[in-house]
Amino acid sequence: MSLSDIFVSLMDIIENLIDKIKSLIDILVNSPFTREFRQFTREFEQFTREFEQFTREFEQFTRE
Description:
Layout: H1 3-30, H2 32-63
């Protein structure tokens, strides 16, 4: 096996690895779990904003 053969084999392995990584990323990005987690995150952020607003209003009320 020559050095060029080894290089070609190594490049094939790297290309396959890159394809597998792309597939994994695609699965993770488009999975139902990921979508549900994003939705949960958005809803939790909304809750946090509303709670902060309530806290500010309550603090203002207690000062009066």
